[in-house]
Amino acid sequence: MANELKDKLVSVLAALQTQGMTPEQAVEHILHSFGGRAGEISTISVITPGLIADVLLTVYRDAVSARQIAIILHRLGYDRQAVAGALRSFFPELSRPGDGEKGA
Asked: What does the pLDDT look like over 31-40, one tens digit per residue?
């Protein structure tokens, strides 16, 4: 189901991109279709911060930054830890020194 959802979101965002929308504008447009309640998106269990980041990076590739994605995810109601985890999986350079290392 996650792949189907990703494919649909990619399709919608790609169409919005061809209309000249930025990542922020495209997400805002999608929010309006959900009734404009950004904070409620984070409560839909299949729509994860990682999925949203993946969709944005698939469609906008180099035209979207980690900062833009973080702002979008925060606006959608995801907490800092969820946003950081999603960003680190796509931008490993954002990991803190020592992340994932066992103590010596």
From this structure: 888 776 767 7
**pLDDT tens, residue by residue, 13-33:** 999 999 999 999 999 888 888
**Residue 61 falls inside a structural domain:** yes
The b-or-e profile of 49-65 (16+ CB within 10 A means b, else e) is bbbbbbbbbebbeeebe
Number of domains the chain is built from: 1
The H or E element spanning position 64 is none
**Structural domain of residue 43, as residue ranges?**
2-92
- CA nearest neighbour of 49 among 65, 69, 64, 67: 69
C-alpha 12/C-alpha 104 separation (Å) is 48
pLDDT(100) > 80:
no
Scan for tokens 């350079």, then name that residue: 93
